[in-house]
Amino acid sequence: MSLASDPRRDRRSRSLSRNPVVETLAAMLVVSLLSWAASVVGLVGLFALAPPVLLPPWTLVTSVYAHAGPGHLLSNAVVVLLAGSLVSLTTTRLRFHAFFVVTGVLAGLAHVWTAGLFGVRAGVLGSSGAAFALVGYVLSANPASSAVLDRLRLPARVVVVAVALAALALTVLFSAPGSALVAHFAGAAMGLVAGRLRLLRAGPRRPA
């Protein structure tokens, strides 16, 4: 006797497997495991973003998903899960993944290049820049924030200062000691601006 599968359960399974947050968390885990294995033989440089930033070029992306250790991975995964789940409700898989990668890469570059201005050769590893961007997006894209900002009608210069101060506050409040503060700040700022502009908005997702 064969057991018939539950169509609703199958649909939920397919929906979960195609969830951009689940896909991102899976990529973070897989790439982090590979980077930890590589670090055993001294090849973590194949995953971390460091100057010169295009040698090797793939570190622009691998550095966004790879993490220094389980604790680092877990802390970023929690933020991605919480903030990313909210963002994913009103956007597409493609836009979510593009936003995550682009903000992560730009945040990493900001950290590396800022350190270079002070003569420091710094490398960066982890999803924190992208995670801060997701948090910033949630904060500025929600209806309450939009309603307040629309009523205030602030001048462009004031908005720029407000974004910088908000990004700085997020960085100070939620960054661990010794972390990539410039990457966190850059990610938060990009997320706040993108949220205000509703760059990821694609309409509510229909149930599977």
UniProtKB/TrEMBL annotation:
Domain of life according to the entry: Archaea
Membrane topology note: Multi-pass membrane protein
Compartment(s): Membrane
GO MF entries: serine-type endopeptidase activity
GO CC field: membrane
GO biological process entries: proteolysis
Transmembrane segments: 21-50, 70-89, 96-116, 122-142, 154-174, 180-199
Domain Peptidase S54 rhomboid: 58-198
The keyword Membrane belongs to this UniProt entry's keyword annotation: yes
InterPro entries in the cross-refs: Peptidase_S54_rhomboid_dom (IPR022764), Rhomboid-like_sf (IPR035952)
Pfam families to which the protein is assigned, alphabetical: Rhomboid
Keywords: Hydrolase, Membrane, Protease, Transmembrane, Transmembrane helix
Family from the record: Belongs to the peptidase S54 family.
Protein name: Membrane associated serine protease, rhomboid family
Naturally occurring in which organism (per UniProt): Halogeometricum rufum
